UniProtKB/TrEMBL annotation, chains A, B:
Residues bound to substrate: 52, 259
InterPro entries for this protein: PurM-like_C_dom (IPR010918), PurM-like_C_sf (IPR036676), PurM-like_N (IPR016188), PurM-like_N_sf (IPR036921), ThiL-like (IPR006283)
Record's protein name: Thiamine-monophosphate kinase
Pathway noted in the entry: Cofactor biosynthesis; thiamine diphosphate biosynthesis; thiamine diphosphate from thiamine phosphate: step 1/1
Native organism: Sulfurifustis variabilis
Length: 321, 321
């Protein structure tokens, strides 16, 4: 089976067909229409076997996560996802694997109405490259650079369960079957905060998604905005599974590990009533964890109010394994 | 050095800065503006060390080719390139390599006014993924599916020199220093036919770029358009280097090997005067090589007018090495 037949077999019957796609899969490039008043947001990420996922992991999860992490980047801009391209390299054609991979990616695509419009397949070490494209109102993208002193810092959901799941995979942590079931999808199948992101347009002053860990990612916002922050560890939202292990494993999993794919965003004081109303109406789980400050440093306080010195500052993609 | 510093060092001072880029490198996603009346064309390709290029090849050439092959895909749609994303995976941080890679990519970017707006860097086997984005007038993309019986088939430039260069690399062919110098860039640093492509808007009925070989790529056009073609080998344009070796190596290098990155396009009879005028004015090298037919087959004729049976039908990305 050659690559063209493989593409047809596994990706032909995708779940989403958008009217704004002029040319989809099958030509030299895809062509789409951007409505007036909108700008185009675009991001790409590569997931490499043995680096970003276990080579023997469930292909459905790999497909899910590959698309989800890119939609998470769009969510961090307040962009509504619309289209994606998939570049798949693999050592040899493995149709059942690709079919299950497609099942995972298309599950996320269906959920967020995102259409696969192109890409490339090639022989090589197992790796997945996805480019996700979305729409954002003209001038309305939520940037890293617009946090201001006095803005309140929030995160969506709970932090740290992806780290728990990774520790379990590595044999560093024993979880009960129930605990394991409660958190396993947080690492393997994160769900990007697209709906929250769109509701934050006009409310959030800045945003980033938590892929490298709260301290590192918030650090990017502080650097881009030329501000600092005070972060209260006691406010960081943890799942009941994590909280039960907190004394044993410490805060690092929640603040210095990647892969949570929650949003961290800042809100000016005058927009907080809008935020609270919106979150209540939409039943979004958000938690205030600190405040933007003028001093250009990240002041992390432990539950006793004392300065907390983190052990690690996040994920470096080129650090030794 | 971590990935963020590497990105800053090697990609910070890029040569192109476009006014339509709202958010460039450094946020979760890039944001650009599409002018009214235009649609967006997008394509991505991955180049894997040991598969698409020799791992020890000159990084300037690898950078050049990585961007060039993607711009070639946009050219095949009649799209004007504007922006690109770069995903680079490498086993460890090699700053001199990345700097030279960037030099090659930015040389092509400068030539075609294309701005790097994002991407990703990660640890993994050496591979380059590029997503190129361009603009095409509403409804004006040149597709593979619009060739009609009676349309004349053309190609730009000469075909086969990339194959000669590859044969030389493999030790299958000895070339003189002068011959080698004349063709070496055709494999290592192909130049996408962007200018030709834009001039073909409104003239060409269909187009494809020659990445897999003329027979295979023309075959894609015939399949998408539900037509056939008669191809005259005697008309296929060859460089003087290739022509001097023709008796020795045969036609395959020119018609069944990839990597030429010329355009193959079709033109309805009534547009041929426009084509000839444009090509003469712009000094574009184009050659008529055959005609689209109703019968859904590819009828290749040798210089004696007899049916020619090709030995291979192009490049299969999953064929054994």
């Amino acid at each position: 089976m050659n690559e063209f037949e493989l593409i047809r077999t596994c990706f032909a019957s995708q779940p989403v067909s958008r009217p704004d796609v002029r040319v989809g899969i099958g030509d030299d490039a895809a062509v789409f229409r951007v409505p007036g008043g909108m700008e185009t947001a675009i991001t790409s990420d590569v997931l490499v076997a043995g680096v970003h996922f276990f080579a023997d992991a469930d292909p459905v999860s790999i497909g899910h996560k590959s698309l989800a992490v890119n939609l998470s980047d769009l969510a961090a801009m307040g962009a509504e996802p619309a289209w994606f391209l998939l570049d798949l390299t693999m050592p040899s054609v493995d149709v059942p694997w690709v079919q299950r991979f497609a099942e995972g990616a298309f599950g996320v695509a269906r959920r967020f109405n995102v259409q696969l419009i192109g890409g490339d397949m090639s022989r090589g070490p197992l790796a997945i490259g996805i480019t996700a494209i979305g729409l954002v109102p003209e001038g309305g993208a939520i940037l890293r650079s617009d946090a201001r002193p006095g803005d309140q810092i929030y995160v969506t959901g709970d932090l740290g369960d992806a780290a728990l799941s990774l520790m379990q995979h590595r044999g560093e942590l024993k979880l009960s079957v129930a605990e394991s079931a409660a958190i396993t999808d947080r690492l393997a199948r994160p769900m990007p905060r697209v709906d929250e992101s769109l509701a934050l347009r006009g409310i959030a002053s800045s945003a980033i998604d938590l892929s490298d860990g709260l301290l590192a990612d918030l650090g990017h916002v502080l650097e881009a905005s030329a501000v600092g922050a005070r972060l209260e560890l006691a406010r960081v939202p943890l799942s009941s599974v994590y909280r039960a292990r907190l004394a044993e494993i410490g805060w690092e999993g929640a603040i210095a590990n990647g892969d949570d794919y929650e949003l961290c965003f800042t809100v000016p004081p005058e927009r907080i009533p809008d935020l609270e109303r919106m979150a209540a109406e939409r039943r979004f789980v958000i938690t205030r964890i600190g405040e933007i400050t003028e001093d250009r440093e990240l002041d992390v306080r432990d539950p006793a109010g004392k300065p907390y010195r983190p052990r690690a500052l996040g994920h470096d993609h080129f650090a030794p394994a």
